[in-house]
Task: structure prediction
Amino acid sequence: MKASGLLAQGYRVWGLGDFVQLLITLVIGDTVLDNRRSPFSDLTGSLTGLESARLDWAGADGKPDAPYSLAFDDVYFSRQDGRAETEHVFIQGNHLPERFANWQDARPFVIGETGFGTGLNMLCAWACFDTYAPADARLHLVSTEKHPLTQDDLRRALTAWPEFADQARVLVNQWPEPVRGAYRLILSDRVVLDLHLGDSVECLTHLDGRVDAWFLDGFAPSKNPDMWQPELFQAMAVHSRPQATFATFTCAGIVKRGLKAAGFEWAKAPGFGRKREMLRGHIATPPADTSRQQAPWFTPPSHQSPQQPNRHIAIIGAGLAGASTAEALARRGVQVTLIDQEAPGAGASGNRQGALYVKLAAETNLQSRFYLAGLLYTRRLLERLDPERQLWDDCGVLQLAMTDKEARRQKTFLRNHALPASVVEGITAAEASHRAGVALTHGGLDYPGAGWVRPAALCQRLVAHPGIFFRQAEVMTLEHYEAGWRLGLADGDSVSVDQVVVANAWQASNFLPLEWLPLKPIRGQVSELHLLPDASIAPLKRVVCAGGYVLPVLEGVQSFGATFAPGDTQSDLREADNATNLAEFKHMLPAYAEKLRASGVDFNPAGLNGRASLRAASPDKSPYAGPVPDAPAWRKDYALLQKNARRAPAIAGRHHLGLWTSAAHGSRGLASAPLCAEVLASRICDEPMPLERELIDHLHPGRRLIRELITGG
Ligand code: SAM
Result:
């Protein structure tokens, strides 16, 4: 595309700095210098809503409702007997009862599917697994869907199977918004579903994970030729385990040829009902996955080597990052020792109330995609952990556009992101006032599903899992030895484990293998106003933020904040910080503040309660979640990048085996830490990852080393 074409699309002319940025974007697959959009933004995918399935229902004749796709002119499942068809084609076609019964691996058995539809296939697989698999086996479902059903349609479709009522309720409750991306749903302690919303080929191409058995579904090739392309079968092949099987209801020539060309062997088998034939088969030796050729440093450390068992894992730091990682591992049956010098949730995660929100960039970038996925994941986690909502409230978050610059930014954001109003919506001051329950001077972006959480209480709830042993101690040293890792404690004792996750925020780089990791401490103080018990003022109904944030009153306390002081490592309570928070509060919510004052609330900063703590941030403001690189080895292996950023030496990244980190969650740990916990636990336990590959790489702590090599700083 010519520069004039770029300008016509709103891009400015590129300078030297942009080309350095582009090189880094190409090489490490990320916008690490800042979050501008490049002409190569396709690399980062888009954050857009998907068109929901348009259905017809044909249940008027006394039979259960059977959804019919108007767009594809085809049925979701056989009108004759949908469940029997699934059992015949997909469950028996992949020999699942026998394979489940014999499953002995510590990792989960993985099923991949094209076209989730109503979820009937996956519910049948779940039921089959519950019937046949050993008690400690786990099942991981990965499914793609381009036109998800609405939540109401899904609920209605699944009423056809009363025997699955409980499972259907779990699925419907966690059903994600129709937005492109990956969504992890924890269906039970041993069954996980990753829904990849988007086109099957695209989703499978970006999958970071491998499959044991494929359900090759989707409407008939004659009705849906776009999906049954050679690229689909190739993506399936690359993401197959050796000897992975597949089954499909169709025998169309395009399917047979595509499967064969991709390396699958197939055979015809008797079809279900009136269908004479179906296909099933396997792939003996899947092709190599070359997706990380451009960035070999992100190649994950190999799994399950005898040197790297994962029976017992220590986690350093019991804030949100550590507590959520502990829960994610314990849920997988790993024995966890969680170590912190203070009680769980005592540090930066120790505020009694915190905002669960994200600030998405005007132009789509990897960071925004991660944070939105994180926000939505945390909501599902909270829903599962605390359905009574004692720990949280999805009251909604308003991001006010209080300056012209912010108003322009929000306008650009809305133009670039066609997202459902249930995720984010631009609203006027009048509408914002209505939703917040107090008079506001500006409109802004409304995130109806965001809200607030009690972070300290959440940490305590997470670590209450019986598989987690909490030990209050200060870890001084971290040392690798033949059998794993040894942690030296300040009291002279030591703890020996198979693997370690370092999750102690800005202090993570105190440990020798992590001393190179750029982490900045940021002091933040929140303030609290105590309301008078008889004050009868209309309550604030949403979290409101602009420069700072104000939370809805909780148990008579109005919390607001927070200050932002990079490099300050003191956590004393300061009157000056209270004054700063108060000024911001009055600026954002003048009418509400005035009402509080008139009701007798004391606005004197000297008399305010509050809490200061230290958060940690990375230079690019995204968290670190992944294996810890062997920094000297990376500097040596990739030294060539200093001369030529396009020449990636074909060497897989060398890592400290069994050492991981989750850090740099800044002030948005509520949105980022739980999903990062799933990222770590999934990698440690050899499961498909909960996010697309480029987002996994975006979180990799080694990104900073590569940047350092390319830019020299
Ligand atoms: N497996 C489903 C079940 O158990 O209910 C039935 C699947 S239905 C026959 C086909 C599904 O494939 C539909 O939900 C449709 O939206 C989805 N689909 C069609 N083309 C697709 C594509 N290119 N990428 C992802 N999903 C697609």
